[in-house]
């Protein structure tokens, strides 16, 4: 039963990362590469009708996490208190800048919201990557000092950083060189992903330039991926364990590799969809590899006193989980139907939707 | 510890109060927009379509604000009330997860189509997408009130090891006797906000002699929706909700009504008065004898228990706040009925659009439904104190154990600053949209 909900939650989070990922990426493209008013408009048009529905995947994942794994929800949300609040504020800024920009036609007004939109997108990508890094690295569960828990075994609290920025320090921070590295990987990945989405959904003058950008960034990404895979082993030596036991899990790294190397052919693609598929594969594969390396652990403990949080010891009780399958199945079918309808209505290029022209 | 609880409570209260300013308009307004669009489909009069589009713009602004201020609400269960989430997540997580899965996906998928898809979809499908948004937003309200009702009157649970609440009856969550009266009462309250809002904008147009055609449509529609919802919010829904409080939370009822001591031979209904907590009495009281007994039990001499009959440890923690919340809500509710009945009478006599004084009143009523709805929620929430889960889990046992008061204050201040900014921007844009009026739509189309 826990495994069912674990898989559901990971699929939902994966969908969230792929969908809102292109939103963040489009924001970063907007900040650095969209020059003219038409190009900026193309970028916002491409995500306009979708961003709100994409963000629902985050809220819905949060809901499922709360319902299926309440102890993890309580532990992680209070322990990562400050970064979560910052993420909330950034999400708010990002959403309102997208909605408010077109409301007033004034140069300064538009410039202000453009920059805020881009910066919030960039920081969100960085934070979500760093968040994944924190989950991989683990936390001091029970806030152990000198071998004694000062809190209940599953509670903790993390400062934003410690002065050494060392992931293996006794008192960890949210930001250290390891989580920052994963944050950078996320920024580059999502920039490529967002650029692919813009190419797919618009016929902007930006698109040709974006292909060059993607091609160059992909080298940076390759370098960062190799670097992080290399240091990953120092931070979390047991990460290969699951792959040694269950060979089929290699499917995830393989998918990620296909996505990463496929992207190098960006300039040769004849269909606008191809690039987006490859960047989605890379995200899906690397997200899946991370989860696979940790399973069944959801949040590792970095001390020897308290056990890691696993899908078994944080799950809700049996009855609630099984009754949830009923309503969830109905809801999942409905969600798929909405998505098919939505994509049919807004199929093709969206240059003329007129998003934000209220 | 004291500080920490205070900041956590202030933060939740502040963020939820601000958040609920938006859904209370959008839930009611979505129904009224669907009505405008339906009216257009039936009569083929373009004005109704333009009316629908005009209100969609206001709706979209409110909806965005509702979404962005709503996400922090879900997060805060975990960030600030971790212990509560850990112990009750198996139950309230159900209804909250259902809200995400059933209503947010529905709303957000169809809102995009409703806002940008008129040309792509045609009028009938456009109407349907509006209907879907309406259903989504009302389903969201339902699931939130289901969660709220469980906290007020817990059902379908058992308590296992470590004080964990475990669900043992899923359907009980939706047959909860607290749920339906509260839900209908709340939705009627939401319709009051939107009706008064629509009527007020209409009155503004008529009084300023701009967009008068639309002014008439808005005033008329606002008054018709307003008179129905103002009556429904008091009777039967408000009455039923109050009877639930009498039955399941008698100490809350005593505090709401300001009854410090049980009165033999029937209780008076207090209209005005200030609670004096030192001397346990009301100052400057204006009251009508025996009416409360009659309203509650339909007998003039029925006995209603006063606060003196309950142990102080289970008294609501903020009795004056609770008392004022309730009296402000009920007092404003009475005024709403009076205004809307008068307006309906004049509408029926075909004199409403010329009756300037009433149009002025309608225009200036805009803030009061917001105040009444907020006061009503304060009544419900302060009435539940000192409990998080009524009679079972105290508020002090629900906070996050590792979040220090300094961090809680930091984020509280952050939210205050951010929301003030949001509120100002929002007001500016809504006022701009109202000033431009529905006619700008027509110009855009031609």
Describe the overall structure.
Chain A has 358 residues and is mainly α. Chain A has one domain. Helix content of chain A is 68%, strand content 4%. The longest helix of chain A is centred in the first third of the chain and has 31 residues, at 2-32. Chain B has 446 residues and is mainly alpha-helical. Chain B has 3 domains: 1-77 and 405-440, no CATH class; 81-174, no CATH class; 177-251 and 308-403, no CATH class. Chains A and B meet through helix 3, helix 4, helix 5 and helix 12 of A and helix 3, helix 4 and helix 16 of B.
Highlighted features:
heterodimer, A: 358 residues, mainly alpha, two-stranded antiparallel ribbon, two-stranded parallel ribbon, 12 helices, 6 strands, B: 446 residues, two-stranded antiparallel sheet, 17 helices, 6% strand
Outline the fold blueprint:
The complex is a heterodimer of chains A (358) and B (446).
Chain A (H helix, E strand, L loop, with lengths): L1 H31 L4 H11 L3 H18 L1 H10 L1 H20 L6 H31 L6 E2 L2 E2 L9 E3 L11 E3 L1 H25 L4 H30 L5 H5 L5 H12 L10 H22 L2 E3 L9 E2 L7 H28 L13
Parallel strand pairs in A: 3-4
Antiparallel strand pairs in A: 1-2, 5-6
Helix pairs in contact in A: 1-2, 1-3, 1-6, 1-7, 1-11, 3-4, 5-6, 6-7, 7-8, 7-11, 10-11
Chain B lengths: L1 H19 L2 H21 L2 H35 L1 H35 L1 H4 L1 H30 L4 E3 L5 E3 L4 H4 L3 H29 L4 H23 L2 H12 L1 H8 L11 E8 L4 E8 L2 H7 L21 H30 L7 H9 L2 H18 L2 E3 L3 E2 L10 H32 L2 H7 L1
Antiparallel strand pairs in B: 1-2, 3-4, 5-6
Helix pairs in contact in B: 1-3, 1-16, 2-3, 2-6, 2-8, 3-4, 3-16, 4-6, 6-8, 8-9, 8-10, 8-14, 8-15, 9-13, 10-11, 11-13, 13-15
């Amino acid at each position: 039963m826990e495994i069912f909900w674990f898989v559901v939650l990971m699929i939902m989070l994966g969908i969230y990362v792929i969908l809102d990922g292109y939103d963040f990426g489009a924001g970063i493209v907007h900040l650095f590469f969209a020059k003219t008013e038409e190009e900026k408009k193309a970028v916002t048009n491409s995500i306009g009708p979708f961003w709100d529905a994409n963000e629902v995947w985050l809220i819905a994942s949060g809901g499922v996490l709360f319902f299926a794994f309440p102890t993890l929800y309580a532990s992680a949300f209070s322990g990562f208190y400050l970064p979560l609040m910052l993420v909330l504020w950034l999400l708010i800024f990002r959403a309102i800048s997208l909605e408010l920009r077109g409301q007033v036609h004034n140069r300064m007004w538009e410039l202000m919201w453009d920059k805020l939109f881009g910066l919030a997108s960039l920081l969100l990508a960085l934070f979500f990557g760093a968040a994944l890094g924190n989950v991989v690295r683990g936390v001091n569960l029970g806030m152990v000092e000198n071998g004694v828990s000062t809190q209940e075994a599953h509670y903790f609290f993390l400062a934003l950083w410690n002065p050494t920025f060392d992931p293996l320090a006794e008192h960890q921070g949210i930001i250290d060189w390891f989580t920052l590295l994963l944050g950078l990987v996320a920024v580059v990945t999502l920039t490529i992903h967002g650029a692919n989405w813009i190419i797919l959904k618009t016929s902007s003058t930006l698109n040709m330039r974006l292909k060059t950008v993607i091609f160059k960034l992909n080298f940076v990404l390759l370098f960062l991926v190799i670097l992080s895979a290399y240091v990953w082993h120092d931070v979390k030596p047991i990460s290969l364990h699951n792959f040694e036991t269950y060979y089929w899990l290699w499917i995830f790294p393989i998918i990620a590799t296909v996505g990463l190397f496929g992207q190098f052919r960006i300039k040769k693609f004849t269909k606008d969809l191809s690039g987006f598929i490859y960047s989605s594969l890379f995200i899906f594969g690397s997200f899946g590899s991370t989860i696979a390396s940790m399973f069944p652990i959801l949040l590792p403990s970095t001390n020897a006193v308290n056990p890691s949080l696993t899908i078994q010891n944080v799950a809700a009780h049996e009855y609630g989980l099984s009754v949830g399958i009923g309503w969830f199945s109905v809801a999942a079918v409905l969600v798929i139907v909405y998505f098919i309808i939505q994509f049919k209505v807004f199929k093709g290029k969206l240059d003329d939707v007129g998003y934000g022209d209220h | 510890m004291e500080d920490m609880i205070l900041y956590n409570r202030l933060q939740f209260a502040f963020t939820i109060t601000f958040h609920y300013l938006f859904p209370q308009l959008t839930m009611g307004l979505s129904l009224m927009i669907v009505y405008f669009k339906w009216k257009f489909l039936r009569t083929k009069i373009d004005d109704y379509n333009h009316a629908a589009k005009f209100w969609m713009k206001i709706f979209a602004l409110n909806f965005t604000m509702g979404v962005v201020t709503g996400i922090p609400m879900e997060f805060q269960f975990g960030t600030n009330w971790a212990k509560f989430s850990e112990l009750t997540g198996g139950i309230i997580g159900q209804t909250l997860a259902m809200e995400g899965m059933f209503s947010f996906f529905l709303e957000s998928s169809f809102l995009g189509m409703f806002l940008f898809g008129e040309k792509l979809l045609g009028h009938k499908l456009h109407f349907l997408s509006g209907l879907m948004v309406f259903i989504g937003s009302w389903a969201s309200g339902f699931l939130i009130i289901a969660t709220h009702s469980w906290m007020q009157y817990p059902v379908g649970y058992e308590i296992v090891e470590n004080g964990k609440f475990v669900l043992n009856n899923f359907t009980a969550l939706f047959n909860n006797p607290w749920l339906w009266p509260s839900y209908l009462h709340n939705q009627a309250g939401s319709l009051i906000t939107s009706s008064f809002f629509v009527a007020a904008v209409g009155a503004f147009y008529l009084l300023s002699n701009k967009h008068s055609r639309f002014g008439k449509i808005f005033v008329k529609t606002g008054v018709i929706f307003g008179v129905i919802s103002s009556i429904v919010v008091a009777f039967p829904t408000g009455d039923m909700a109050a009877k639930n409080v009498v039955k399941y939370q008698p100490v809350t009822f005593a505090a709401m009504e300001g009854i410090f001591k049980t009165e033999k031979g029937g209780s008076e209904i207090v209209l005005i008065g200030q609670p004096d907590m030192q001397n346990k009495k009301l100052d400057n009281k204006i009251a009508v004898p025996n009416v409360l007994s009659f309203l509650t039990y339909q007998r003039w001499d029925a006995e209603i228990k006063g606060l003196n009959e309950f142990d102080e440890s289970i008294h609501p923690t903020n009795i004056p706040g609770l008392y004022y919340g309730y009296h402000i809500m009920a007092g404003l509710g009475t005024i709403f009925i009076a205004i809307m009945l008068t307006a309906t009478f004049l509408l029926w006599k075909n004199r409403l659009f010329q009756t300037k004084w009433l149009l002025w009143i309608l225009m200036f009523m805009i803030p009061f439904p917001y105040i009444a709805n907020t006061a009503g929620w304060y009544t419900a929430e302060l009435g539940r104190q000192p409990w998080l889960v009524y009679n079972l889990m105290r508020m002090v046992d629900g906070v996050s154990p590792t979040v220090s008061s300094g961090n809680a204050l930091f984020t509280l201040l952050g939210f205050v600053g951010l929301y003030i900014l949001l509120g100002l921007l929002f007001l500016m844009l809504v006022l701009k949209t109202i000033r431009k009026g529905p006619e700008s739509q027509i110009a855009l189309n031609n």
